[in-house]
Amino acid sequence: MSMSQIHPRLAIFAAMIACCASFVTAADWPQFLGPTRNGISTETGLIKTWPTDGPPEVWRQVGGGGMSGVAIADGQAITLVQRDDKQLAVALDAQTGKTKWETELAPFYKNQMGNGPRGTPAVADGSVYVFTGEGILAALNAKTGALDWKTNAVKQNGGRVADYGMACSPLVVGDNVIVTVGAEGATVVAYNRKSGDVAWKSLGSDPAGYSSPTVLTVAGKQQLIAFTGASAIGVEPLSGKLLWKHPYKTAYECNIATPLLVDGDVFISSGENHGSVLLNIKPSGKSFAISEVWASNGGGAVMRNEWQTSVLLDGYFYGLDNVGSAGPVTNLVCVEARTGKGVWRKPRFGKSNLTYADGKLFLTTMKGELVVVAASPKGFDELGRVKVMGMTRQAPALANGRIYVRDEKDIICFDVRAK
């Protein structure tokens, strides 16, 4: 896939950064779902022929338990782990895997769906922002790991910890860092990045769910789009004013995937046998009118993202469709974004997470496999598959020709540059 084909998505992000903090270099992966928070990397020159034994392993370092992804910024690989009865932020040298610093954030976090922290760090302007399993939000110095401030966002706002742990990955917007809290009168909360003081609270009473918010250009203006445990909502990103709300209730409040932009419309998808919908949001007086461009819900839905955010490429979604209520069957599918029409389906591909780069989908499966698939609406074409680690739930992070993954024990770096 050429760079020219990806430019429309980058144009959207260029507009977004007017109110967002500057994020390191274009080759970094400084937050959840990458630089544009949509699972897409613009890197090219990556591996074309997949070796039988997989790409070369550059380094492997002991990490720890948890479900946090890896953020890559300013030469460091940063993630959250659980080890020695503590939740820790860990920074490794991205080239060598050598530990740069470790910072204790909170005590051991235990949960029936897996122990340890869930959210992926966000790195911006020399600071690292993290969110623990019980909802402690903290800011650290990116070079030293020194703690600048921390607060228990859930307790502070009178909320409750989500049944399966607080899974929101922090989002940096302007002077604030934003997380979904799910408390009464504080569905989404923004904190001043320097002081840690509350900057605004978005009114509402939705439970938190497990999705991470994003900023999208909707109805001609930048909006913070959050997918709570009960709704998709649009919020004014600098004030917290609630602009619109679309109910989307899922069993166990399991709205997890991050919303995506499709030609100005908003795509949301959930598992638990729920489905997907593409929403059109238009100004209507002093408010907004919401309509469904298409919807595909229930047992025959075209896409049911259990926890994985799809990627949108040239008018097509590539994503994971989970069958049943958190069941073991997950298909890899391609769906026409404007119509919801299914294009192709690879049955029983396996529970996975995916990242796009250079015409390919890079996937990690829960079995610990690293898989590469051609990103094409013409049909399913698997280019390689190799087991490289234990169970994992994180999508690969891709930066500077390297892929970074982790399981419940290790953090691992692979060289995926074409030779």
Topology:
Elements lengths: L2 H14 L40 E6 L8 E3 L2 E8 L2 E8 L5 E9 L14 E3 L2 E5 L4 E6 L5 E6 H4 L14 E3 L2 E8 L2 E7 L5 E5 L11 E5 L2 E7 L3 E5 L6 E6 L12 E3 L2 E6 L4 E10 L2 E11 L13 E3 L2 E7 L7 E7 L5 E5 L5 E6 L2 E6 L3 E6 L7 E6 L9 E3 L2 E5 L3 E6 L4
Antiparallel strand pairs: 1-32, 2-3, 3-4, 4-5, 6-7, 7-8, 8-9, 10-11, 11-12, 12-13, 14-15, 15-16, 16-17, 18-19, 19-20, 20-21, 22-23, 23-24, 24-25, 26-27, 27-28, 28-29, 30-31, 31-32
Q: Helical element count? A: 2
- In one word, what is the shape? globular
Residue runs with pLDDT of under 50 for 5 or more positions? 1-26
Task: Describe the strand arrangement of the main beta sheet, using strand numbers.
Answer: 1-32-31-30
Q: Give me the Rg, rounded.
A: 19 Å
Briefly characterize the structure:
The chain has 419 residues and is mainly beta.
What does this structure look like?
The protein is mainly beta. It has one domain: Quinoprotein alcohol dehydrogenase-like superfamily (Methanol Dehydrogenase, Chain A, 8 Propeller), CATH 2.140.10. Helices cover 4% and strands 45% of the residues. The protein is built from two helices and 32 strands. The strands form eight sheets. A four-stranded antiparallel beta sheet has the order 1-32-31-30, with no helix packed on it. The chain has a four-stranded antiparallel beta sheet with strand order 2-3-4-5, with no helix packed on it. Strands 6-7-8-9 form a four-stranded antiparallel beta sheet. β11 and β12 (186-192) form a beta hairpin. The chain is globular, with a radius of gyration of 19 Å. The two termini are 19 Å apart. The relative contact order is 0.14. The model is unreliable at 1-26 (pLDDT under 50).
